[in-house]
Every structure is written in C-alpha cells, then in structure tokens.
C-alpha cells in the first residue's frame, strides 16, 4: 500500500512539473510573439508596366523602396491598389489619366481596408511623384483613415522632382499627425542601383531615428 502511494506521489510530481514547464514555455512564446509584432507599417502605391526611363518593369519603383524599408524596420506592408484598375500600362496614356484625376481633384477608390492602425505608431507612406504631387488615390487614403497621433514618414520615387512637397502635403491632409523628414529616390536607381538605394534608405532611417 505504501509503495503504491509513493508511486502515485512520484507520478503527480512529475506531471505537475511537466504541466508547469509547458505553461511557462507557452508564456514565453506569447511574450516573444508580442515583441515580434510590428508597430511600424509601410503603405505604398506603385505601378508596373511602362515607366519613365526604365522601360517596362515587373516590380514598381516605389514597391522596391517600400520593401527595403520594411526589411530594415521589420514593418508590415500594405499596397494601395485601385478598385477597378483603370491605370493604363503605357506611360503616355498613364500620364493623361493621372493629369485628368488631378484636374478633377478626384478621389479614386482603393481596394480593401488598411490594417487596424491602432497597433502602429510609425507609418511610412510612399508613392511615385505624379505631376508634382501625390497620386490622387493617396489623398483617398489620407482622408479615409484616422492618422491622428501617428508618426508619418513620407517617401517618393521620381525622375527629377525629388520629394515634391510630399511632406507638407501630407501634413496638411493629416494635421494631427507628426510628419518626419521624407526620402526621395530616383525610380531608375530603385531598378538599377539597389545597393546604393539600400544604403540611402538605411542612413535616412538612422537620421530620423526610426531604427
Ligand atoms: C503619371 C506620371 C506622372 C509623373 N510625374 C512626375 C513628376 O512630376 N516628376 C517626376 O520627377 N517624375 C514624374 N513621374 C515619374 C515617376 O515619378 C517615376 O517614374 C516613379 O519612380 C514611378 O514609380 P512607380 O514605378 O512606383 O510607379 C511621373 C510618372 C507618371 C507615370
């Protein structure tokens, strides 16, 4: 009888140990997942097809820079895609459509929803410069979402116009956000000189102290 009791006691002790070590492993996993969850988001708009100076491209210039930022910061990515993709794949036709949208002060719809912004404190926002401004679809994004209290970091790709006032225009569209210094990258460099672009992305991130 005593032997049986001793055996049971040993079994109970072993099982309790197993359960508690399983529980602490699960707790550790949870803590790690929380630490891994990104608090940074990259929102970008970018086109493939025929683009200025680079010919027909399979990955958009801005998409390349957006991915570099996400790799450096561990950010999540959200691509702004038009609901009905009415943007032509040839450069000249695209410039006409974009000009018309600007003239009309249009707010083209994008598909889907941004992820819940509650968990993000820093949000990078990038697009190609179109006629010296953000593509109008980006104003739809700025106006349909609440960026109050967020740190917003603009970036552009372009072929000569630089940042084109993206920072000031973003600040006007989102007055209750803090807008940091932006980065402008030549579209041609994004396609053809990626090591140099990666370096400028990294030093810009260090300068604005996001890393
Ligand atoms: C409709 C349109 C308008 C553009 N306007 C400008 C401009 O005003 N200034 C400039 O430097 N580049 C301009 N570009 C060139 C793009 O900004 C550049 O090619 C950009 O890298 C394209 O990025 P994406 O591949 O991500 O769309 C324009 C291109 C298009 C298609």
Task: Provide a short characterization of the protein structure.
With 211 residues, this protein is α/β, with parallel strands linked by helices. The chain is 46% helix and 17% strand.
What does this structure look like?
It is built from seven helices and eight strands. The protein is an alpha/beta fold. Strands 1, 4, 5, 6, 7 and 8 form a six-stranded parallel β-sheet that branches. Strands 2-3 form a two-stranded antiparallel ribbon. Helix 5 (166-173) links the parallel strand 6 (151-158) and strand 7 (178-179). The protein starts with a helix and ends with a helix. Residues 7-13, 15-26 and 28-35 have low confidence and may be disordered. Flavin mononucleotide (FMN) binds at residues 46-47, 51-52, 60-63, 91, 94-95, 98, 128-132, 157-161, 187.
For the structure shown, list the relevant keywords.
six-stranded parallel beta sheet, Rossmann fold, alpha/beta, 211 residues, binds flavin mononucleotide
> CATH superfamily, please?
Flavodoxin domain
Q: Which structural category do the helix and sheet elements fall into?
A: alpha/beta
Shape designation = globular
Give the helix proportion (percent range). Answer: 40-55%
* Order of helix and strand elements from N to C terminus: HEEEHEHEHEHEEHH
N-C termini distance: 66 Å
Uncertain segments of ≥5 residues (pLDDT<50)? 7-13, 15-26, 28-35
| Fraction of residues in β-strands | 15-25%
